[in-house]
Amino acid sequence: MDAAEKRHWVLTDVSLVIKGRDLQPEEITSFLGIEPTGVRNPGPNKWSRPGEVDGEWGINCNSNVSRDFHEQLDNILSTVESKRTELAQLAEQGCEVIVDIYGFSGNDCTLTLRPVELKRIALLGFPLRVAANMNER
């Protein structure tokens, strides 16, 4: 990859995140039948933002799986689509269910969501959170 290509490159991480004040990660794993890539039990945590006490369960797809953002997104959306009913039940019980896109980016970078991807996200009915870290890698 030359310098010009690297300037427009985004290192992404796409996740399904389930959060809740009383969330017990092992119960979510059992309910969904999916092993998480990360969990956090409820309560204060030195790595969390001040006041953040929610438990968290998540699966993510990052550059360890694919460097292609659209493949990462498809991977997570396919999982969410296959568990939509269960995730909706968790949301009805007070859990926050989020599709999360996080990226480290270089100068003048872009990250484009295709219309079909936006439609898939919208049909799920869960929030999409996009966060960027402009610290160059």
Strands of the widest sheet, in order across it, are 2-3-1-4-5
Overall pLDDT: 85
Quaternary structure type: single chain
Our count of helices gives: 5
How far is it from the N-terminal to the C-terminal residue, by CA?
14 Å
Q: How much beta, percentage-wise? A: 25-35%
SS class: alpha+beta
Report the principal-axis shape. globular
Order of helices and strands: HEHEEHHEHE
The percent of residues in helical segments reads: 25-40%
How does this structure look, described?
- It contains five helices and five strands; from the N terminus they run αβαββααβαβ.
- With 137 residues, it is α+β, with helices and mostly antiparallel strands.
- Strands 2-3-1-4-5 form a five-stranded mixed β-sheet.
- Mean pLDDT is 85; it is low at 1-8.
